[in-house]
Design brief:
With 361 residues, this protein is α/β, with parallel strands linked by helices. The chain has two domains: 191 residues, Rossmann fold; 131 residues, Phosphofructokinase domain (Rossmann fold, 3-Layer(aba) Sandwich). It is 37% helix and 19% strand. The protein is built from eleven helices and 15 strands. The strands form four sheets. Strands 3-2-1-6-7-14-15 form a seven-stranded mixed β-sheet, with helices on both faces. The protein has a four-stranded parallel β-sheet with strand order 9-10-8-13, sandwiched between helices. The chain is elongated. Bound molecules: 6-O-phosphono-beta-D-fructofuranose (F6P). The site of 6-O-phosphono-beta-D-fructofuranose has 12 residues, from strand 12.
Length: 361
Amino acid sequence: MAEKRIGILTSGGDCAGLNAALRAVVQRAIHGYGWRVFGIREGSLGLMARPVDAVEFDLSLVTGDMLRQGGTILGTINKGDPFAYPMPDGTKVDRSGEFVEGFRELALDALVVIGGDGSMRILAQLCRQGGIPMVGIPKTIDNDVARTDYAIGHSTALNVACEALDRLAPTAASHHRVMILEVMGRDVGHIALSAGIAGGADVILIPELPYNLDAIVARINQVRAEGRNHALVVVAEGCKTETGQAVTLRHVDGEARYGGIGHYLADHLSDRVGAETRVTVLGHVQRGGMPSMRDRLIASAFGVHAVDLLAQGGIDRVVVWQHGHVTDVPLSEVAGITRAVDPFGTLANTARGLGIYIGES
Ligand code: F6P
C-alpha cells in the first residue's frame, strides 16, 4: 500500500483516554501500514497557525505511559469555531480557508478527528469544504455522541462521580444530612444516571426528565420512614429549575456555562426535608486523572479501527462502539447530533426499579 501521511487532532473539552487513542492511531499506522502520522496541536488552531503547529510522531513518542496519562499531549480547544473565529476586537472572521491550506501545507492524505458531537460537526464542515477525507473518533465525558454506546472519557468520569458518592455517603450518614452532588454532562444526564445508580443515590435528576420538588421531599421522607437518616441526591448540571428556568454561571468571557442547580436544590429543599443539606459541585475533576481501564480499552480499539478504516478507503465515517464491538457509521449520522438518555431505557428503568426518584415520566 502506498505510504500515506495522516494528521490527527483532539478537539473540544479534554478527557481521560485521549492519549491512549493517539497512541493507538500512531502504532497502527506505523506498524500496520508504514504510514507517517502528524499530530496537530490545539485542535483546529494547529492547522490555522503559520507555520502550521504540528509534530510528526515516531514510535519513541508513543509509549505505554500514554495509556496512563490524562488530558491530551496535543492540546485542545472547545471554542474558536474557524467559520466564525473571535478576533481581539470582538468581530468574527471566517478562517476556514486557513485550516484547509494548513492541511495542504502538511501534504496530508486524511485527518483523524478525536472529538465530541460539536467538534465533529465543525470539523466535518471544514473537511467537506476542503475535500479532506476525515474519520472521527468519539470522545466526551458526557457520552452524548450519537450512534455509539461509549465515547472516550465517559468511563473515567463515571468512576470519579461514583467515588465522590462513596466519599459523601459516610458524611451524610454521620451528620444525618442530605448531600447533593452536581455532576457535569452538559444537556444530558448519562453521568448523573449511571454514577447515581452505582453510587447508591436516592434521587437522580437529569435534564431529560422534569421533576417536582414535592416528589423529591416525598422520596427523602420515605427514606427516613425506612429507617435511614440521610440521603444522597445526584443532579446533572444541565437540569433546569422546577419551573423550567435554565441555571447557568456567567464566565468573565461572557459565555454562559452550566452550574448552580445543586445550590438551587439545596435552597429549595433544606427547610422542607428538615435536614441539613450540603452541595458538592464536582466540576473538572471528572475530566482529568488517570484513565480507567475501560477508557484505555475503548480508545485503543477506536484508534486501531480508525486507521484500518482509512486503509480500506473508508472516509467520512465515525468509529463507534455498539453492543460490545467496534464498528463505524457515516459521519452525517453523528456530527452535531446529541444522544440523550432514553427515559425508558435499561438504566432509567433500573433506577426506578431500585426506588430512586428520577423525575416525572
Ligand atoms: O463537554 C464536556 C464538558 O465537561 C461538559 O460536561 C461541561 O459542561 C463543559 O465541558 C465544561 O466546559 P469548560 O471546560 O469549557 O468549562
